[in-house]
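Why do we care about 3D structure at all? Because function follows from shape, and shape follows, mostly, from sequence. That is the central idea of this module. The next example makes it concrete: a single protein chain, its amino acid sequence, and then its structure expressed as tokens.
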Amino acid sequence: MKQPLKIERAVFLICACLIITGLSYLYGAYSFRAKLFPYPQLSVVYSTAAEILGRKSNLLLDRGLVLIVHALPGTSDSRVDIIDRDGNSIHGWSPRWDEIWPPAEAAFFNKDVRPVPGDGMYLHGIDLLPDGSFVANFEHLGSFRMDICGRLMWKKENLGHHAVSYDPQDNTIWVTAENQSPSTVPGMSNVRDWTLQQLSLDGEVLRDISVIEILKKNGLTGLLHLASLQNDSVAVWGDTLHLNDVGIFPDDYDSRVFAPGDILFSLRNINGIFVVDPDTLEIKFQSVGQVLRQHDPDFTPDGDITVFDNNNLQPTVEPENGQSYILRIDSETNEIETLVGDREDNRFFTAIMGTHQVLPNGNILVNSSGEGRVYEFSSAGELLWRWSSLGTNGSNNRVYGAIGLPAEMDASFFEEAAGACPE
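And the structure:
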């Protein structure tokens, strides 16, 4: 007779638990709407925790200004803004293609790439100089320098594109450029002949190094013909390499592989990253096939390389499922470490373009161009800050570049420099 009593007691307890759980749920929902106990107390706990975590993120955030190059609605021209971390514009420029290269002067450029008057052309590749001026490229057209007041200092019809890098060691500028005439190398007729071009601060060409010649000199002729799909011909044409970055190894960085002045460059269409000796043109480092349609490799202070790996698998991967990465490549072993992009909470994607920068405090600034967003992540991959280039139709405008500025280039620097500009 005791067994049925135990069963009845168990059923009673189960039913009581279900009733209490249901009533608790209903009261919880009602207390949330009516803001009764324990809603106020839980809100305080939640707010306090969020504030503590927010303070932690604010402590990690680099508070320096950021240079942003972003698209202007209704034209292909760009806007360059210096913004603070609240999104306020501290200083800005609006370089217009038609003003810098009026139609009468633009006849130099091939009609197939020359913008129609009034259409404009975006900037791709920019670097800010110590005096507050900048050098930038109108994509695949020309490089120019503009002072802090927005006055043109010089322009160069060099077909500059993608990248500009100021080298403080010898006070020069490196740009990715292109020879005016396509390559005439047998089997490579009409191949775009990309160059690594060094300019003086006055715009004088100091060096112009052919990427094709670098690869040939180092016995890498096979990389020049990867675009060939025929059995009986290795002829290639067009944009087989797609040079998209150049950078110089600084004299205050350490490395067992690189030396000051070594040149880093990126060839997107063969998924290749290279470092070459500037004097002998000997390749000292190469990574081919470890990234997919990459942009913006940079040296690290301890002699490795970080890179924006677009990981562009389109059209087999839908944009919302795409995932780009910031990677670190060991310069001695070529081993890969993922810094950002391997978690759901720091995911981003852009099929084309994109830049990154490891900031002095170890944080990583990421320009996801196709998303129209700039992010700052901690060294552990935690999202600390995000800025969006908001458009007029509810979507974001493309961002062509983002640079975290040094501490000495603060708001007062730009205010004082701009104060000397004529009214």
